[in-house]
Each structure stands twice: as C-alpha cells, then as structure tokens.
Amino acid sequence: MWIVASDFDRTLSHERDSFKLRDDLSIKINQFSNFFKFFVVTGREERFIKVLAPNLRPTGWVLENGALIIIGERKIINAPEGWFDLREDISRQLNRIGVKHSLGEVIIYVNSWKEARDFGRNVRVEMNRGDAMILPEGVDKGRGLIKAIKESKSEGKIIAVGDAENDEALFRVADIKVAVRNALSSVKEQADFITEKEDGEGVAELLDLILSGNFSKRVNIN
Predict the structure, then answer these.
(1) Is there a contact between 60 and 148 (Cβ–Cβ < 8 Å)?
(2) Domain range for residue 123?
(3) Beta carbons of 177 and 171 less than 8 angstroms apart
(4) Which of 7, 9, 163, 199 is catalytic?
(5) Residue 32 and residue 50: Cα distance in Å, rounded?
(6) What integer pLDDT is reported at residue 165 of this predicted model?
(7) 167 contacts 15 by C-beta, under 8 angstroms
C-alpha cells in the first residue's frame, strides 16, 4: 500500500493560480484517496487551506509545518507543554525589534526575514524560500506526517513529494522521495524520482503512474 505525502505551495498548487488548487487535481486526489492514502503536508494554516483547496478531501492534513494535524473531524495540536507561553514571549521579542509576523494556530510566520535569529532551547526556525517559520523544537513536516499516519491507522510505504527546503524533513521519513520539476536544485539532488511536469501536473503524473502500476518500475522498486 502506498502513502503519498505532498507539499502544497508550488507542489500541488501553482503560483500563477495564486496557489488555489485546480478543480481537476482536487478530483484526482479525492479519487486516488479511495484506493491509497494521501496526506497534504504544508506550512499553511487551516484558514488559508480552506480557501485555497475547498474541495480537497485527502486522508489527512499536516499543517503549520507539522504542528497541526487534522484527520476527519479530529484536530491534533502537535506541540509540547509550555509552547504557547514561549510563543508569546517570542512574539514580544519580534515586536521589540520591529519584525512583522503573524501567529498561526500553533506556529509563528515571518515573511521575507533575512536575519533569522536564535531563540534558544526548545525553539527552531525553519526557512522556506526566504520566509521563516518559528516552531517548537522537534516539530517538522516529517515528524508531523509520522504522527498523522499513526493517528489515521494507516500503513504502507511513504512517497514524499516536495519542492523546497522545508520538504527535506518530509524526505527524511520517506521510503521514496519525489521532486516536482520546478523544485529547488537541492531538493532534486535528494530525489529518487523527478516528475516531467511542474507543480500540480507533476503530482497528477505521479498519481497516474501509481494507479497504473508503473511507478515501481520507474523507480526500480521490486
């Protein structure tokens, strides 16, 4: 059984579509999820995903870079005790140094932050194409996916699909690493398979290969 875990921005969605998921891809993923498991793993907040992918019904969502997991109607906060007090302190520090930021349900977002700083123990800063996400130590896309798989009682080999730096944590827990054609060079270098097409078309290409039974042959899996 395959478990596909895909990033959202510039992997499922196109920047030229303002990152709104195309209806044909939503339909394809929903149909695919009837036979295999499909998780969306993204740094996005739930409120934005509801606008950008209103018709998508995957097996589960791993949001805020692994800090928030949604399986059906269940919402799981993936953060240690004391995180929210620490987050308030970090927010105050950012305000003092004049860094504009926003709060997700769990993490802190900083757009176009060129001088990410160290906030000490129990905090990590992850960059993604020039933006920063401030998270609890030990939380990332890969660990979030593993928790989501356990919570959904799923089993199978993990195919991770991504395009940028924060997908490297997702790759670390994958059996097979897939980069879409528009991925950063550093991501492509780690990939077992690179799609011929970009963004959502690349993910659709991958799903078609899996459904046809040809994916294993393309990546030399016995």
Answers:
(1) yes
(2) 83-136
(3) yes
(4) 7
(5) 20
(6) 86
(7) no
Identify any residues that bridge with 69 across adjacent strands, giving them in sequence order.
62, 76
Asked whether the beta carbons of 162 and 96 are under 8 A apart, the reply is no
pTM: 0.94
Based on the fold, state whether residues 57 and 146 are members of the same structural domain: yes
194 DSSP β-pair partners: 179
User: What does each C-alpha distance from 40 to 14, 79, 119, 138 come to in angstroms?
Assistant: 15, 19, 29, 20
Residues 129 and 173 occupy one common structural domain: no
Task: Quickly state the pLDDT bin for 127 (edges 50, 70, 90).
Answer: confident
Q: Say whether 7 is catalytic.
A: yes
Locate 62 and state its tokens.
């791993």
Cα three-residue angle 13-112-100, rounded to 5 degrees: 115
CATH number for the domain spanning 210: value is: 3.40.50.1000
